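Supplementary Methods. Inverse-folding protocol.

Structures were first reduced to a discrete structure-token string of length 178. This string, shown here, constituted the complete conditioning input.
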């Protein structure tokens, strides 16, 4: 399992690294070809090379990025998860403009990864359970986390099958809070 720590980004930093919220660095054509929709807000981008060494089960590709966008609909969130195997080329400023009701989704929080033992709470990646894997477990009450979902005092999960993750097929991924 891979643990996550975050820090609010200050001053100069590389926008092409792993981060929660702020401005995604992604393929520009995703805005015009329907890959990302107007109702999606940017949740995070994960640069695989930054944590691949901790992926002991070999679930992920060696390089590239996983992007998680969320749509708020009927009181819940629907994930739009995308993979890009190339270094993204465009920083999309103000991507989360208009989503103020979800908290400060304009501020950027840089992510650091570390190997960790199993634990039920905390923000983590790649938590395996049988034929399912939690791609991301987001605990808003962890130190320095963005305030997103902090009022729920619950943990958010993005889960899919191990086979789908290995194929980088995120079409059946589920987002839930418990």
């Amino acid at each position: 399992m891979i643990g996550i720590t975050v820090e609010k980004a200050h001053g100069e930093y590389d926008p092409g690294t792993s981060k929660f919220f702020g401005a995604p660095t992604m393929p520009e054509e995703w805005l015009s070809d329907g890959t990302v929709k107007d109702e999606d807000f940017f949740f995070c981008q994960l640069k695989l090379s930054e944590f691949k060494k901790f992926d002991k089960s070999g679930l992920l590709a060696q390089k590239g990025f996983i992007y998680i966008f969320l749509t708020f609909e009927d009181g819940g969130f629907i994930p739009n998860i995308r993979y890009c195997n190339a270094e993204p080329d465009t920083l999309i400023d103000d991507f989360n403009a208009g989503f103020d009701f979800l908290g400060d989704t304009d501020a950027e929080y840089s992510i650091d990864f570390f190997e960790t033992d199993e634990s039920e709470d905390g923000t983590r990646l790649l938590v395996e359970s049988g034929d399912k894997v939690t791609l991301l477990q987001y605990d808003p009450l962890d130190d320095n986390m963005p305030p997103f979902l902090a009022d729920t005092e619950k943990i958010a999960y993005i889960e899919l099958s191990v086979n789908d993750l290995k194929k980088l097929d995120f079409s059946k991924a589920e987002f839930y809070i418990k």
